[in-house]
Amino acid sequence: MPTPQPRRAPGAPGKRFAVLDPATGEAFDEAPDQQPDELDAVVDRAREAWHGWRADPVARDTALRAAADAVEAVGADLAQVLTREQGKPLAESYAEIARTAARLRYFADLVPGPQPITDGRPVRSEIRWRPLGPVAAIVPWNFPLQLASAKFAPALAAGNTMVLKPSPFTPLATRLLGSVLATVLPEDVLTIVTGREPLGARLASHPGIRHVTFTGSIPTGRAVAEGAAASLARVTLELGGNDAAILLEDVEVERIADRLFWAAFRNCGQVCMAVKRVYAPARLYSEVVEALAQRAKTVVVGAGLEPGSQLGPVNNAPQLARVERYTAQALADGARTVAGGHRLDRPGYFFAPTILAEVPPDSPVVAEEQFGPVLPVLPYRSLDEAVEAANGTGFGLGGSVWGTDLDRAEAVAGRLECGTAWINHHAELSLAQPFAGVKDSGVGVAGGPWGLYGNLQPFVVHRPEEA
């Protein structure tokens, strides 16, 4: 099918902003800079569309399946745009698009049927499920399409409509996706708005929005929750992580080194549930550091559209500055660079894949979320010490344990304060599982049936057995 062109957003002509290619640091396109006062009309249309969309679950199922087919049909065009604005290797963009289509089909299959209540009373009680209304989604720049679909697929399947705002660093692929989906979805069921702040703040606090789902930083997440509180809208917040990987004494370092490396460095380390700290037993510490450093030194770093690139650039200049700042602070604190540690001498936002050893545990690169191609490796002398350190931040998204004794590894995993724990791998999610963090890593649950029911309101009907 021909690739639809993004619909030109409403608003005054000329209100547009530049979109930069992170592989060059230069502008290559632009997107509409919609203004907060335009949201009233957008949300009103989403509410009007909701009345028809909520009424016909069979039509919704058909439309979502057609949407998945439409995404796959223009996958090559979407992948090119996504890589150009986000920076990731083209193969990873194709994987993101495949995940988007798969998620649409998954939620099309989930039907929220009525649930009887059996409590011994002479009445027939039943829980039915109702959609909430217009939902707002605010999506970051690391996985623009995948995270967008993680929000709109369950919301639409539940019978809601959605207004979705992508990051201003990556608006183009999402706008193109919206135009593709507009060919199979009723008008105003899914609306993409693009622009800079305070557009997102106004969307999160809009009185016509009944559910706000946000992925991003903790400070912005708190602001989103405060804005949504004004209208008592439901909130789902995924606020990042500082996932720890604990290697046990019986781990076979060379056997797991590739998996561990890519669990930290996929998408240039810009993954909320990436490994961001490694704790290795003192006896194996040097071996672990060298195994990871060898991979960091040999991975192919380049523009995502270049054949053979395994690792792209950091997405944007502010994030590159953050990565540089955290690395410089770690070195000032006494850390040692074993691989990388510097920006690459080429155009764009490239930073050498970096392994840091001998990092003080209170250095920001350990205690906070660096969100880039930098990995600190820390030694431990007792397992209790490692678990305490892994749990010793305000984050609690994910964690992993690596070793050959799976029962022991599972027992250690059970001590981690996080939403998901993996054994001998990391950051792998099924569409059918819940995804949630604890502590500062978020509020609410995404994924699987939990993601669907998070977009629904229970409605209870009591009926006597006899008139």
From TrEMBL:
Assigned keywords, A-Z: Oxidoreductase
Q: Where is the signal peptide?
A: none
Question: Is Oxidoreductase found in the keyword set?
Answer: yes
Q: Where is the Aldehyde dehydrogenase domain?
A: 15-452
Q: Entry's Pfam families? A: Aldedh
Which CDD domains does the annotation name?
ALDH_AldA-AAD23400 (cd07106)
Enumerate the transmembrane spans. Answer: none
Instruction: Specify the superkingdom.
Output: Bacteria
Q: Which residues form the active site?
A: 238
Q: What InterPro entries is this protein classified in?
A: Ald_DH/histidinol_DH, Ald_DH_C, Ald_DH_CS_CYS, Ald_DH_CS_GLU, Ald_DH_N, Aldehyde_DH_dom, LUC3-like
The text of the family note is: Belongs to the aldehyde dehydrogenase family.
Q: Which PANTHER family does the record associate with it?
A: ALDEHYDE DEHYDROGENASE-RELATED
Put simply, this protein is called Aldehyde dehydrogenase family protein
Q: Which organism is it from?
A: Streptomyces bluensis
